[in-house]
Amino acid sequence: MNILIIPEDFRNDQYILKPIIEAMVTELGKPTAKVRVCKDSLLGGVSQALKWDNILQIIERYKGMVDLFLLCVDRDNDVGRKTVLTNIEQQAQNILPEKKGFLAENAWQEIEVWVLAGHSLPKNWNWQAIRNESNPKEVYFLPFAKECGVINEPGEGRKTLANEVVSRYKRIRRICPEDIANLEGRIKNWL
């Protein structure tokens, strides 16, 4: 099985999405699935990732090589984001062959929270506050990366910190039910 992750901006998101999606599909019984991050189209932000014409170009370019497309973006406190993603999914399914899939999910609020979910966090941090924060990347993730001494590594520490938590995928799924557990369930249904 070949999976292509379409991030809103691969430059940092790749370091989180690839290892976590690999852990997810391994948990689903597909440890040999090939998971790639789309780098051929730098979307450069959520507004570009939500434009159907951009998604259509990616699908047309890769549909012969990919079984499942995963569009993964930040929610950014936008309560209407899921509706937009559902519309993109429907348009994609209308043009894909029957055995190909396209799923779209938004992180609650940003994908960096998935990495935090797998780590032991400072005692004075409250998990619900992290989940509710509109800007968890700036308020929690980047200070955490700095505290861990990895802020100057690839993706401002995303690569190291994400790779450290893939063995704790079940924990991430348990405490991120709105996004990680939801996406896992949807992939399982697609399989």
Short description:
With 191 residues, the chain is an alpha/beta fold. It is 53% helix and 13% strand.
Tally of DSSP helical segments: 10
Mean pLDDT: 95
What structural category characterises the helix and strand content?
A: alpha/beta
End-to-end distance: 10 Å
Q: Please report which band the strand proportion falls in: under 5%, 5-15%, 15-25%, 25-35%, 35-45% or over 45%.
A: 5-15%
Succession of helices and strands: EHEHHEHEHHHHHH
Rg over alpha carbons: 16 Å
Helix-residue proportion: 40-55%
Supply the number of structural domains.
Answer: 1
Give structural notes.
There is one protein chain. With 191 residues, the chain is α/β, with parallel strands linked by helices. The chain has one domain. The protein is 53% helix and 13% strand. It is built from ten helices and four strands, in the order βαβααβαβαααααα. Strands 2-1-3-4 form a four-stranded parallel β-sheet, with helices on both faces. Strand 3, helix 4 and strand 4 form a beta-alpha-beta unit. Helix 5 crosses helix 7.
Give the helix/strand layout:
Layout: E1 2-7, H1 10-27, E2 34-37, H2 46-49, H3 52-62, E3 68-74, H4 81-95, E4 101-107, H5 112-118, H6 127-132, H7 136-147, H8 158-165, H9 169-175, H10 177-190
Parallel strand pairs: 1-2, 1-3, 3-4
